[in-house]
């Protein structure tokens, strides 16, 4: 497609955007009285306007029904979490019985390690990407120490090549083969938070499985962003948060995927609680744990309904659009943003460099040469919300639900102003 760096062209793109009405379905923060250009949907998605209604419904059920809301609310609380499984399964390419919502992301990764990281004397290593998201690094290190081992010997990091900004699939595969029968687990962020790279999850999962390891994915930056087929790719487990591309609010609940091949295993190690027990018997208060026949067996507590409500509101929107149109628009708007960046780079004589590889989702990470931090500040003051990562990188994620092509054009103009001023 031929792009043009003009307001008229951007407006034409918006007019032809089948998802354009969704922009009006979100609350935008304002700077200088104008809605911002919001590039941080990869960090905290904007609030859908309908979220309020879903929360109000819980509050009014609670005020009118008290404890009876568990069974007599229109959307009863005791099985409210089950409402999320089917729409969420579509977002991550799973069967509804393989998906559950509970806790928060790092908590769930720890809980999943109980089931899927079972080191033995011979097979105890974990493979991840170098410079993984810090919470994932701390989680892995503490798990390894919990099993009485040293992170330095048990954690194997796949590195980028000298002078390159991305991981090569062939290097991940080579490392998996090298570690071979010492490899207990592969756990990587499906989309890297820093450079925006999408890992080849299907190929890597197959390679890990082939050497006898378990393979899990942290989909924090992938869920609601890129195409994922967890079931068909034969992934063992995955977890993600709901507040990035899934627009469910700060610190909100996490989704998990547990491949159905593990559901019937009675000997699988797992930390258990009453919400994981068979729902028919849950209130019989018996001492025996009888697991739910699905991913809900990993549930512990009765879920925080006030957190699930915004997640359900968001999933209703994903259900309305489907992933395919979101992905289609995402590809187009990211390509347009890239075009604008390259135009600006030419006009400003090489002030920045895109470090995100071809295999990408919504995010472009841009290395700013020279006066990075002050350019970032200029953008923020002028209503462009991005984020800053040391040493000199801004991350731009035009979420397809609510960002417009006009936003991209206006961003380019502000960028040019910022660079020429500094
Ligand atoms: C955002 C993110 C997290 C955050 O974890 P929480 O437990 O929700 O705070 C963890 N891992 C990755 C890869 C992330 O991108």
TrEMBL record:
What highest taxon heads this organism's lineage?
Answer: Bacteria
Residues bound to pyridoxal 5'-phosphate: 105-106, 133-136, 218, 221, 243, 274, 302
Under catalytic activity, the entry for this protein gives: 3-hydroxy-L-kynurenine + H2O = 3-hydroxyanthranilate + L-alanine + H(+); L-kynurenine + H2O = anthranilate + L-alanine + H(+)
Recorded GO MF terms:
kynureninase activity
Cross-referenced InterPro entries? Kynureninase, PyrdxlP-dep_Trfase, PyrdxlP-dep_Trfase_major, PyrdxlP-dep_Trfase_small
Which Enzyme Commission numbers does its entry carry? 3.7.1.3
Q: Which UniProt keywords apply?
A: Hydrolase, Pyridine nucleotide biosynthesis, Pyridoxal phosphate
Question: Which parts of the sequence carry N6-(pyridoxal phosphate)lysine?
Answer: 244
Q: Which cofactor does it need?
A: pyridoxal 5'-phosphate
The family classification in the record reads: Belongs to the kynureninase family.
Task: Kindly state the subunit structure of this protein.
Answer: Homodimer.
Write the protein's name.
Answer: Kynureninase
Q: Which organism is it from?
A: Pricia mediterranea
Tell me what gene encodes this. Answer: kynU
């Amino acid at each position: 497609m031929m792009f043009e760096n003009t307001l008229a062209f951007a407006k034409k793109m918006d007019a032809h955007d089948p998802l354009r009405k969704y922009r009006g379905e979100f609350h935008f923060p304002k700077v200088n009285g104008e809605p911002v250009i919001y590039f941080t949907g990869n960090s905290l998605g904007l609030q859908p306007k309908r979220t309020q209604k879903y929360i109000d419904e819980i509050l009014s059920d609670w005020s009118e029904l008290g404890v009876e809301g568990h069974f007599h609310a229109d959307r009863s609380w005791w099985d409210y979490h089950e409402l999320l499984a089917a729409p969420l399964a579509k977002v991550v390419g799973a069967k509804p019985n393989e998906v559950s919502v509970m806790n928060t992301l790092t908590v769930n990764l720890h809980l999943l390690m109980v089931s899927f990281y079972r080191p033995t004397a011979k097979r105890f290593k974990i493979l991840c990407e170098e410079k993984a998201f810090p919470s994932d690094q701390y989680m892995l290190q503490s798990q390894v120490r919990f099993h009485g081992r040293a992170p330095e010997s048990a954690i194997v990091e796949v590195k980028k090549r000298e002078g390159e900004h991305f991981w090569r699939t062939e290097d991940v595969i080579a490392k998996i083969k090298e570690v071979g029968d010492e490899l207990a687990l592969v756990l990587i962020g499906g989309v890297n938070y820093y450079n925006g790279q999408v890992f080849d999850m299907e190929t890597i999962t197959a390679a890990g499985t082939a050497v006898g390891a378990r393979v899990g994915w942290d989909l924090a930056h992938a869920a609601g962003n890129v195409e994922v087929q967890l079931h068909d790719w034969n992934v063992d487990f995955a977890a993600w948060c709901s507040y990035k591309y899934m627009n469910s609010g700060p610190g909100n609940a996490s989704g998990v995927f547990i491949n159905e091949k593990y559901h019937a295993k009675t000997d699988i190690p797992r930390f258990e609680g009453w919400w994981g027990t068979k729902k028919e018997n849950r209130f019989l208060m018996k001492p025996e744990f009888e697991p739910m026949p699905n991913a809900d067996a990993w549930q512990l507590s009765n879920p925080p309904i006030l957190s699930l409500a915004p997640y359900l509101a968001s999933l209703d929107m994903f259900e309305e659009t489907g992933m395919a149109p979101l992905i289609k628009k995402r590809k187009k708007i990211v390509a347009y943003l890239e075009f604008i960046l390259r135009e600006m780079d030419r006009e400003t004589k090489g002030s920045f460099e895109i470090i995100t590889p071809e295999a990408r989702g919504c995010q472009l990470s841009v290395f700013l040469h020279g006066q990075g931090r002050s350019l970032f500040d200029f953008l923020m003051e002028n209503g462009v919300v991005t984020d800053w990562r040391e040493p000199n990188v801004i991350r731009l994620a035009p979420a397809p639900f609510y960002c417009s092509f006009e936003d991209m054009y206006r961003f380019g103009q502000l960028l040019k102003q910022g660079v020429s001023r500094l």
